[in-house]
Structures are given as C-alpha cells and as structure tokens.
Amino acid sequence: MTSHSRRRWAVVLLAALLAVLPPSACLWLDAVPADGPAEIPTQKLIALTFDDGPRRSTTTRLLDGLAERGVKATFFLIGRQIPDNEDVIRRMDREGHQIGIHTFDHVQLTELNQTDFAAQVDKTRTLLTELLGHDGFLLRPPYGKWDEGVRLRAGCPIILWSIDPEDWDDKDTNRVVTEVVSQARDGGIILLHDIYPESVDAALEIIDQLHAQGYYFCTIDQLFAARGLPLKDGEVYWNAYP
Length: 242
Description:
- This protein is of the alpha/beta class.
- The chain has a single domain, classed as Glycoside hydrolase/deacetylase (TIM Barrel).
- It contains nine helices and ten strands.
- The longest helix is centred in the middle third of the chain and has 19 residues, at 114-132.
- The protein is globular, with a radius of gyration of 17 Å.
- The relative contact order is 0.19.
C-alpha cells in the first residue's frame, strides 16, 4: 500500500470514528499519523479547488494566502506546466494541499482514443508520482466533459464541482466572490483557477467571508471522508452534500 493510500485510509477511519463519539467530541478531527490530514471540523465543510495551474506568480501568492488562513485546497494541474514549477508543486504537497490531474495539455478527454488518453492523463500521473513520491491523484476532466470511455480509462475518482462562477470570463473579483458566497453549501465543491490574479483575490475573500459564516475548508479527500462517502475509481462526483 502506498503512503498516499495509507493516508486516505486514515481519513476514512477517522470519519468512521465520528459515528460513535458524542457531539462534544466531534468538533474537530485530530490527525493521528504524522503524515495524515490536518484537523478538519465535522460541520459546514466546503472544498476549494483550482484548475489550470500552476503559474508561479499567482499560485505562489495563493499558497501564501492559504497558509496565512490555515486553509487546505485541491489543485488540478496541467502536466505541461509541471516542468520549471516543481518547487511550487512540492510546496503544495508539503503544506497539505491535495493535487490532482487536469490532463497534460488541457484537452477534452471524450474525443481521445486510448493512446491519446494515456498521453494526457497517465503521462501527467507519472510526472506527479516521480516528483512527489506518491500516487493516488484525482482526475478533473477539462470543461467537465466525461463519458463512459473516460470513466473506464480514468484509473481514479473523477471530480467535478457544484459551484462555478466562471472566474475566467470577465475576471471580475467582486462578482466571483458574490456568486460563490451566495451558492455556498455544506459539502460543496468550488471551482476557481489559480492562473489569474483576480481569481486569487477572489479566493482569499471567499475564504474570509465563508469563515465568518462558519464554513471550514478542506481537501476533496477530507470532504468525502468526513461525510463517510468513499471515492471510487471511475465514478464521477459533484459534491458531498449531507
């Protein structure tokens, strides 16, 4: 079993423990293993995810803001942007963020044959495994497009989203913040992009506003584990609503 698999099982076991603990003991999940998940609360959880990175300038500033707020996020990376950004990706992993695959060239997976699919997904998986020393990466298909072929070839859970403010469109920070905060729901998955300065500004403001409303941010693995929902290879997930 890989170290990443052991971490995932640790999260599942912690989530199962909630069922037998009294409410007063369930405000937080304490990470038992040294390399396990950070503490996460058991109510009003939401996952913040970022696509299309990394981009050194914006992603680094985002990581700084997340660290200041004690927030963990999930990053779906483009394979061709891994070279020359290895230190940024190692920092993501080291600081407890989850890392996933967003293909090598940001192409629509439903239009690919097996060979081209492998060149987009498996190649990126290999690059990340060699860089970080573990596997278990989730897949987010570009444009949210998937079909039975994508499910069969994925080799991992497929993660979509429940909140998409289309931050790439007008890059209007205030609009993005308003849309995300108004649609926030326990168990939701927010889609943003860490390659735009306006999106980084929006993400940090979203965190501050939702924190004030009692929300806590966690990775995709933590979100589903806390809800007792196992992630299965080839299955598609939009949220972890209770």
